[in-house]
Amino acid sequence: AIYKIYNKKRYDDRAAMVAAIKAAEGCTDCGTNNPVVLDFDHLPEYEKSFTIGSNITSKGMTRLFDEIAKCEVVCANCHRIRTKERR
């Protein structure tokens, strides 16, 4: 039981940190800053090691920050547009 509590706290703490990064940056393209609609867009010049959102607790903090550094924050709409334009 204590393990589940620890894991939930760890997830909640990291999710809050990621949301704060997104809100502080805002969408690079349109400026919206609601973290609920913001994504990390991996830039084409960097190799994507993992998806940030689904790995916030399975990777160490250093690896997480290194992966975030390969990205720009964009809203879901702008992310879809960027992805389409890159193809």
Automatic annotation (TrEMBL):
Protein name: HNH domain-containing protein
Phylogenetic lineage: unclassified sequences, metagenomes, ecological metagenomes
